[in-house]
Design goal:
alpha/beta, Rossmann fold, seven-stranded parallel β-sheet, six-stranded parallel β-sheet, 18 helices, 49% helix
Length: 385
């Protein structure tokens, strides 16, 4: 009987990492049967996606509470699948609100649980560590400080380095220029005019909060820099038209780019980014960035009371210092964002300094091969199924 794994990923970044892990596992176990919750990246790696994560891309505490019934039904369906398909191993990827409940259910079924990419329990709701210790058989971390965090709670975690190092190669200047030229030619962008990339996120509610402020900022910069090109990176299955009122923003000439995060990051002289995995991707590409985040008033107040870290941008957390500007909630005003972005778009010296600071992040993220190391750890449990 073939070994069966269920991978649970509830966000775009989790889908990417789930696909990378599935590919590495198939290299060692060609007959492995893998199902899960994910998206296109996991499908392309041969995973039978029985639940599409995009149906559950909920933002903030309030959004989760309002959709508790949906998550309850989802959990019942996933547990039923695990039981009926006799899944041997459950692999969880971040997304702790749902995945820790799934860990408990899988544990009660006697199914081993590996957590690949730790939830940010070191930042908020540290009490979740108790559930991790009780229901998770192995924790795999991607940031060096996480291993020490778990050690303090008596949990033996494996640090494998960041999987984005497998996704984003280190390019020399000539290679970078060639990629930028290719992108500009493909999208008919003048070779010398500056480019601003906007990354409003991958969830509808998130985009609803971020995109209007981003477009206002871009409009201000366009008035200051008439030749500025504005690119909007669109996540799969996201209808930006819902959030781009023609009356308010239709006059802003912009180019929506689908499913090419790497291309937009490489080609842009600077980017305005919603906090999240994209901040690390931008740093690895060496792209100067300004980070912002907005959410509902109630979610923000709850977060202020619970969150225990000094920064929201992952690159600043990794560096343990502020290497990119970040603006939260009411701080994220178009005028302030414009003032940070303008020199990055017009001053070669400022852009070079920001790029160099970003590239330093690569040195802090370990070595390439994270997916294979994660697969090797999971293989221990497959071999003992």
């Amino acid at each position: 009987m073939p070994y069966r794994i269920y991978i649970s990923a509830g966000e775009a970044s989790g889908d990417m990492h789930g696909g990378g892990l599935a590919g590495a596992l198939r290299g060692a176990f060609p007959d492995l049967v893998i199902s899960g919750m994910g998206g296109d990246r996991m499908r392309s790696a041969g995973v039978e996606v029985i639940e599409d994560y995009r149906q559950y891309a909920i933002m903030g505490f309030v959004g989760v509470i309002a959709n508790l019934h949906r998550f309850s039904r989802l959990l019942k369906r996933v547990v039923k699948h695990i039981r009926e398909e006799r899944v041997n191993l459950v692999v969880l990827i971040d997304y702790s609100g749902f995945n820790l409940r799934l860990a408990r259910a899988a544990n009660r079924l006697g199914v081993k649980v590996v957590y690949f990419i730790s939830p940010q329990v070191w930042a908020w709701r540290t009490g979740r560590v108790k559930d991790i210790k009780r229901y998770v058989d192995r924790m795999i971390t991607i940031f060096p400080f996480e291993k020490e965090f778990y050690r303090r709670y008596g949990i033996d975690a494996d640090y494998i380095g960041h999987p984005l190092l497998d996704e984003i190669p280190s390019l020399d200047e000539e290679q970078r220029k060639a990629e930028v030229q290719r992108f500009r030619l493909a999208h008919q962008i003048n070779g010398k005019s500056p480019i601003l990339g906007l990354f409003p996120g991958s969830r509808a509610k998130e985009i609803e909060k971020m995109l209007p402020t981003m477009l206002c900022t871009a409009a201000m910069l366009r008035r200051d820099i008439p030749t500025l090109n504005i690119l909007i990176a669109r996540a799969p299955n996201i209808d930006l038209g819902r959030h781009m009122s023609l009356a308010e923003f239709g006059w802003i000439q912009s180019l929506v780019v689908d499913n090419d995060t790497a291309g937009v990051l490489l080609a842009s002289d600077a980017v305005l980014v919603s906090s999240g995995t994209t901040t690390v991707e931008a740093a690895l590409h060496g792209t100067p960035q300004v980070v912002m985040y907005k959410t509902s008033w109630l979610t923000y107040r709850i977060a202020r009371a619970c969150v225990k870290v000094d920064y929201i941008a992952m690159v600043n957390l990794i560096a343990a210092k502020r290497i990119v500007p970040e603006f939260i909630q009411d701080e994220a005003q178009p005028e302030r964002l414009r003032d940070e972005l303008y020199p990055l778009l017009t001053d070669n010296g400022a852009r070079r300094a920001a790029r160099q600071a970003s590239l330093e992040i690569r040195k802090l993220l370990g070595e390439k091969g994270a997916y294979q190391r994660a697969a090797d750890i999971a293989a221990h449990y497959i071999g003992n199924c």
